[in-house]
Write a structure and sequence with these properties.
About 40% of the residues lie in helices and about 15% in strands. By secondary structure, it is an alpha/beta fold. Strand 8 and strand 9 form a beta hairpin. The protein starts with a helix and ends with a helix.
Length: about 475
């Protein structure tokens, strides 16, 4: 087994060196990871980004597009034959149909390669012709990213931290009652473990519905074809004084370790460690609407997410010897079209405050970070309305019913975010259950009907600025 693992490592190292040399001297590759937590809009972001890079009429913030240096853009087969292709055409059809609807959300990893023909700038403009730059977009659920933090935690440590958090949440009461009746030092059986795992999964589902972000293990909510497997059938437990080898606690520990070694580690090795640019999409408005506990949880989650990255600069030799590092990380608050543009600066400030600690660590390690508010697909228009002698900055759009169908068109005023996000962060950190003296609302809008002209991608807010940050320096 040791010789086999050594040979496998040497083979992977040789493949990495060969690929790095090819990318550096011939056709460069920018590998972008796109992730975010539930309802952050990953699928819509990728679909709109690709559509707007293919038809660049709405991308003035991307310097290479504004200068006319991108002469062509086309889709190609992705380099990883074992990874599903991101179904760009299907998702774009959903957004541009006569009766448009939101595409299905991310449930597993997928990939897409977009190749750009770019004329060089500066001194190289007169010495060489256009070159090809490949943009590989890797889409994966944010819940999977949170699992990377488990790699440094033992089952005992994870259980202790998870149970501590659960004891502060009323939605965890059913599972805590189940666990209290179980004997961790006693002999285990499969039906007992299954009941506990199902109870814990129900808690995770309830936490996600409440708008909470720190939900791990992520595969419990997105199990795919591994549903019911032992590696996805465990739960946190208090450690007995002297658990025997055949005890319930030891079996839970064994399955937790299998989850890390057989599910989390291969994801890091095969996909995550190859990413050199990253965007983290955040439904910040949803967290604010859910209340201070959701904001506090989101801030902790952002710190854990950044802890899973390997920030730093991708110098040529370091990429050959040590693999890729994440050079740039963009934290983007999505659904900016749910607010009037007069509040976008406040939403950006909230994102900056929310991720301040995480960004400081990445900046110290040599990565470049940024935050902004964007809407991958604009679903509303702005208007002003008078109410009780006051002018309100509203947005108007088609509401989406709970069953996903399209409702009536309505104007909506969500409430004004504070000029300084410090009050929101402070209220969240001190454990308030509700916002004091403020009420923030959010509505679900259906996508607007689109009639795209030739050369124009779907309408958006600051998607071009996100593209400039992620790939502009390489074009």
């Amino acid at each position: 087994m040791g010789i086999s693992n050594l040979a496998d490592g040497l083979t992977r190292g040789a493949e990495r060196i060969s690929g790095t040399v090819s990318e550096t001297f011939f056709e460069p590759v920018i590998r972008i990871g796109v992730t975010g937590l539930a309802r952050a809009g990953k699928t819509v972001f990728i679909t709109s980004l690709v559509a707007n890079l293919l038809e660049r009429g709405r991308m003035p913030g991307l310097a290479a597009a504004a200068e006319g240096r991108i002469t062509a853009a086309f889709l190609q087969p992705q380099p990883d034959d074992t990874v599903p292709r991101f179904d760009f055409e299907h998702h774009l059809n959903a957004l541009t149909a006569p009766i448009p609807h939101w595409p299905e959300s991310t449930r597993t990893i997928s990939e897409l390669r977009l190749s750009l023909r770019v004329r060089p700038t500066g001194l190289l403009a007169g010495l060489s012709g256009p070159r090809t730059v490949h943009v590989d977009i890797v889409d994966y659920p944010g819940e999977w990213l949170l699992d990377l933090a488990l790699m440094d935690k033992s089952y005992a440590d994870w259980s202790e931290a998870t149970l501590y958090l659960m004891k502060r949440r009323e939605i965890a009461a059913p599972y805590l009652a189940q666990m209290g009746e179980a004997d961790g030092a006693g002999t285990w059986d499969e039906p007992q473990i299954k009941v506990l795992a199902e109870g814990f999964t129900s808690y995770l589902q309830a936490a996600r519905e409440r708008g909470l972000s720190g939900i791990a293990p992520g595969r419990f909510l997105l199990p795919g074809d591994m549903a019911g497997s032992p590696a996805l059938t465990f739960a946190p437990m208090a450690k007995p004084d002297s658990p025997a080898r055949r005890s319930l606690w030891r079996e839970m520990e064994r399955r937790y370790d299998a989850y890390k070694s057989q599910i989390v580690a291969p994801f890091f090795r095969d996909h995550f460690s190859k990413i050199d640019r990253q965007i983290v999409l955040v439904d910040a408005l949803g967290a604010i609407h859910a209340g201070p506990p959701a904001v506090a949880d989101l801030q902790d989650t952002m710190a854990e997410i950044l802890g899973a990255f390997r920030p730093g600069r991708n110098a040529f030799l370091s990429r050959i010897l040590f693999g890729r590092r994440v050079e740039k990380i963009l934290f983007a608050a999505t659904k900016a079209d749910h607010l009037h543009h007069s509040q976008h600066a406040r939403l950006t400030a909230f994102m900056e405050a929310l991720t301040a600690g995480a960004r400081s660590r990445a900046d110290f390690q040599g990565a470049e970070t940024s935050s902004l508010a964007l809407a991958s697909l604009r679903a509303t228009v702005e208007e002003e309305r008078s109410h009780e002698g006051e002018t309100l900055d509203c947005v108007r759009g088609t509401l989406q019913n709970p069953d996903g169908s399209r409702g009536k068109e309505a104007a909506f005023y969500p409430g004004a975010l504070p000029e300084s996000p410090a009050s929101l962060i402070a209220s969240a950190r001190q454990g308030d259950e509700t916002w004091l003296g403020a009420d923030y609302q959010i509505m679900k809008f259906a996508p607007a009907t689109l009639q795209l002209k030739p050369g124009m991608g779907p309408p958006h807010i600051r998607l071009d600025r996100a593209a400039q940050f992620l790939i502009g320096d390489r074009l």
